[in-house]
Amino acid sequence: MPKRDIREYKNLSRWQSQSHSRTQSSIRKRKGKVKVINSIGDFLNINIFGWMVHYFKSRFGPKHKFQNYTSHNGVFQMIPDDRGEIKISIAADWGTNTEESTNIGQLMNAEHSDYTIHLGDTYFVGAPQEIDSNFISPGNPWPRGKSGTFTIPGNHEFYSNGNSYFDKLLPEMYAVDNVGKKLTQEASYFCLETEHWRVLGLDTGYNSVGRPIIELIFSPNAHLEETLLTWLREVVNLKDNKGLILLTHHQYTSSFDSRFPKPAQQLEKIIGSEKEVIWLWGHEHRFAVYGKYQVDGGIPAFGRCIGHGGMPIEVGSRKSIPRKKKIKRFGLVLTDNRVREFVDDTPVGHNGYATLTIRGNALTIEHKDESTWLMREEWTVDLNGTIAGKDAVVNSCLGLLQTAPAKFAIGLPEEESKLK
């Protein structure tokens, strides 16, 4: 059963101080042997002493060493089923241990996917008991795929220096190869590939949290570690003709919040500025779709924010509807601004996830919420490694907020790639 109430996460910022205080409140209640059903009221009077103990203990210690693969190379071959398909279900910002996240986990489990992937953020600070309750303890709500499950970290895992992520969570992540051998995910990045497609999970979380205290003022750029880049250059052949699907926690573009272009600029040094990719991320607690976007010195990408896995989705405010200038500049096509319910007096939106189905050189992505589908998109990759997409189909019955018509150009030359 979920141990947290969605009210705990209402108005939760990304500030470490607030995250630490809420985790400390939860720890205090466990020690008192009180049933852990938290509410927003627990945090009206902040336990300053408890937060200070937790913050200084975790933030001022050394960050966990960045890990590489040792027993294998981190490239996992995906094997199609009898129908020639491979199915992958993905959620981001899911680890809240609420009824909402448990429900999404059950829906993902019902997909009977070959693989499941979490795109980071186990709340509030990726502490051991949070990793346990979401992913490890008996009866935990995270779904496992038939052939394996993977995770990349977000910023919250590093509010406690990444120790629980690397030491507790990664050993639980794995893939089963074609002879039934279980291969552990040993590093915070991975590659799943077929003859035509490559799914890359990349770690933007490791460098998203900086030096204690200073990090509260200056936000790090979430750049990729050199160890990871070396792996991409020397182990993963990114210059072949496979279609690329990138998975990160942090967003490349956004019409709502900050942007993190540095990873795209680092990748451009490896794959060049012409190869278009599909990029899924979380971090922002919403579902949003972007057209082709490319920052100076970066790669061209079609972004999808799927950070609506478990956190309450902020709707009905100015922040949930960006200015027209930001919509045009940063490529927003569609967002889900529907109200699901009111938590106290605050409107919150729908939670959801994405499912990818690979069939030869074809890829279908379905975006879903708790009860229905939101959008379906179809892609293909040709012998030259060029991806092309049909016009996405949007569930018009839901009244999603579209900044442009549902049909938008995908995979066209730069001069033709404007939203229709």
Gist of the model:
The chain is of the alpha/beta class and about 425 residues long. Helix 1 crosses helix 2 and helix 4 packs parallel to helix 5.
Structural commentary:
The chain is of the alpha/beta class and 420 residues long. The chain has a single domain (71-416), classed as Purple Acid Phosphatase, chain A, domain 2. It is built from 8 helices and 21 strands. Strands 2, 3, 4, 5, 6, 16, 17, 18, 19 and 20 form a 10-stranded mixed beta sheet that branches. Helix 4 (128-136) packs parallel to helix 5. The protein starts with 15 loop residues before the first helix and ends in an 18-residue tail after the last strand. Mean pLDDT is 84; it is low at 13-48 and 409-420.
Structural class: alpha/beta
SS strand fraction = 15-25%
Helix fraction, binned, reads 10-25%
Distance between the termini: 46 Å
Low-pLDDT residue intervals, each spanning 5 or more residues: 13-48, 409-420
CATH architecture, by name, is 4-Layer Sandwich
Query: What is the name of the CATH topology?
Result: Purple Acid Phosphatase, chain A, domain 2
Give the topology string: H per helix, E per strand: HHEEHEHEHEEEEHEHEEEHEEEEEEEEE
Number of helices: 8
Mean pLDDT across all residues, rounded?
84
Q: What is the CATH homologous superfamily assignment?
A: Metallo-dependent phosphatases
Q: Any idea how many domains?
A: 1
Radius of gyration, in angstroms, nearest whole number: 20 Å
